[in-house]
Specification:
- The protein is mainly beta and about 140 residues long.
- It contains no helices and eight strands.
- It has strands at about 20, 30, 45-50, 55-65, 85-90, 95-100, 115-125, 130-140.
- Strands 4-5-6-8-7 form a five-stranded mixed beta barrel. The chain has a three-stranded antiparallel β-sheet with strand order 2-1-3, with no helix packed on it.
- The chain is globular and about 50 Å long.
- The two termini are about 20 Å apart.
Length: about 140
Amino acid sequence: MVAGWFTQDSDEEDFRLLGTRCAACASVFFPREDSFCRNPACGGGELAQVPLSKRGRVWSYTDGRYRPPAPYVFDPDAEWEPYTLVAVELEAERMVVLGQAVPGVRVTDLAVGMEVEVVPGVLNEDADTVWTTWHWRPVGVAS
C-alpha cells in the first residue's frame, strides 16, 4: 500500500520514501510531484513514482525544544520531550531530506557524515487511528 510520501509496509526492510523521477530530464523530487517537472530547465511532464535510497549521510541536525504549533498533535498533559531533526543527504539521489530521528536519538548521538537509514515511525495515535511518518536511525542502532 502507498501512503503518499512513503511505502506503508509492516516490514522495516521494505520501507522507503517515495519520490518521482521526470522521464525527460531524470530529475528526482521529494516530496513526490504528480503534475509537472519542477526542474526549471525542463518542460517534461511525464513523472514516475520511484522509491528513494533507504540510506544516506547526516548533512545537518538540530534539536526541537518547543512544542510545535497546530496542526501538530500532542497530549497537552504529557511532559514535553525535545526531539531531534536530521537533514540527510540520500545515498543515490544526492538530495537532502529532513525528518525526525528515531525516539531516543539525541543531537549528542549524531555527527555530520554519519550513515543513517529511513525507518517507519509513529507521529501520533489514538484509539482509532495511527498516523505514521518516517524517522532517521543511525545505521547499526537496533529498533
